[in-house]
C-alpha cells in the first residue's frame, strides 16, 4: 500500500534552522580547508571544499529551505521574484549565525593546536590590498566579486527554473560553478561571493578584516541583485506569440 500523504510544507523554524546548518557546513568546510589542509592542495583544494560543501548542503537542506546559505543569494532571488521579500531578513540572520558558529568551532580547534594565532582568520578574510593574496586593489576586488557573484546567481536562476528536466542535478551545477569562480577570484579577493562567509572570518580577523568587511558585503549583494534584475527582465518574461 503506497503512502499518498502529501508532503508537509516546512515550518519557518525548520527553514531557518536548515539555513543555519547549511551555512555552518559551507563556512566550516571552506575556512577549515584554508586553515588545516595540506599546503600541497593550495587554492584548488579550497575551491573544491567550497563547491562540495555547497553540493552537500543543497542536497541535504535544499528541499527544506531552498539551500541559499548566502545573503547575496537570498537577496538576488528576491529581486528575481523567486523568493518572498518578507522572509529575507530571517534568512540573512540565520546565515550569519551559521557562519559565526562555524568560525567559533574552528576557533576551538585552533585553540587546542600547537600554535594558537588569530592571524589565521585574517589570512582567510576576504578583501583587497593587504587582504588580497595577490595584492590586488579595491577596483579589482569589486570587479571580480560583482561579476563572479552575478555569474553564480545566473547559474542558480537558470538551473532552478520551472520545467528544467535536469533540476535534480542543480546542486551539482551550482557547486561546480562556485569551484570555478573561486579558482578565478581566489588570488584577487580570497573569494567572498557570500557576506555570511566574510563576516564569519572578519569577526576574528582583526582590525584590517573588519575595516574592509563593508566591501565583502556590498560587492556580492550588488552582483547578485544585478543578476536578479537582468534574469527577470530577459529570461522570465512571457514568451511572445509569433504569427
Automatic annotation (TrEMBL):
Pfam families named in the record: MIP (PF00230)
Transmembrane segments: 20-37, 44-62, 68-85, 92-116, 136-157, 169-188, 208-231
GO molecular function, one term: channel activity
Intracellular or extracellular location(s): Membrane
Topology class, membrane: Multi-pass membrane protein
Gene Ontology cellular component terms for the protein in this record: membrane
SUPFAM superfamilies: Aquaporin-like (SSF81338)
Keywords associated with the record: Membrane, Transmembrane, Transmembrane helix, Transport
Protein family membership: Belongs to the MIP/aquaporin (TC 1.A.8) family.
Protein name stated in the entry: Aquaporin Z
Organism: Agromyces terreus
Amino acid at each position: 500500500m503506497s503512502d499518498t500523504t502529501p508532503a508537509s510544507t516546512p515550518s519557518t523554524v525548520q527553514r531557518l534552522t536548515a539555513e543555519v546548518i547549511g551555512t555552518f557546513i559551507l563556512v566550516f568546510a571552506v575556512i577549515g580547508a584554508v586553515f588545516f589542509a595540506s599546503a600541497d592542495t593550495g587554492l584548488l583544494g579550497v575551491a573544491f571544499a567550497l563547491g562540495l560543501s555547497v553540493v552537500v548542503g543543497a542536497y541535504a537542506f535544499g528541499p527544506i529551505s531552498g539551500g541559499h546559505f548566502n545573503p547575496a543569494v537570498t537577496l538576488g532571488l528576491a529581486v528575481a521574484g523567486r523568493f518572498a521579500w518578507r522572509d529575507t531578513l530571517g534568512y540573512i540572520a540565520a546565515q550569519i549565525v551559521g557562519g559565526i558558529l562555524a568560525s567559533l568551532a574552528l576557533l576551538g580547534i585552533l585553540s587546542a593546536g600547537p600554535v594558537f594565532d588569530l592571524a589565521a582568520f585574517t589570512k582567510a578574510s576576504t578583501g583587497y590590498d593587504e587582504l588580497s593574496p595577490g595584492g590586488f586593489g579595491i577596483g579589482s576586488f569589486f570587479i571580480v566579486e560583482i561579476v563572479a557573484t552575478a555569474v553564480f546567481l545566473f547559474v542558480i536562476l537558470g538551473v532552478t527554473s520551472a520545467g528544467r528536466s535536469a533540476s535534480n542535478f542543480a546542486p551539482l551545477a551550482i557547486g561546480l560553478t562556485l569551484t570555478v569562480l573561486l579558482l578565478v577570484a581566489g588570488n584577487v579577493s580570497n573569494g567572498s561571493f557570500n557576506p555570511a562567509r566574510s563576516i564569519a572570518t572578519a569577526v576574528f580577523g582583526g582590525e584590517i578584516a573588519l575595516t574592509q568587511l563593508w566591501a565583502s558585503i556590498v560587492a556580492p549583494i550588488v552582483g547578485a541583485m544585478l543578476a536578479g534584475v537582468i534574469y527577470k527582465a530577459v529570461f522570465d518574461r512571457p514568451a511572445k506569440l509569433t504569427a
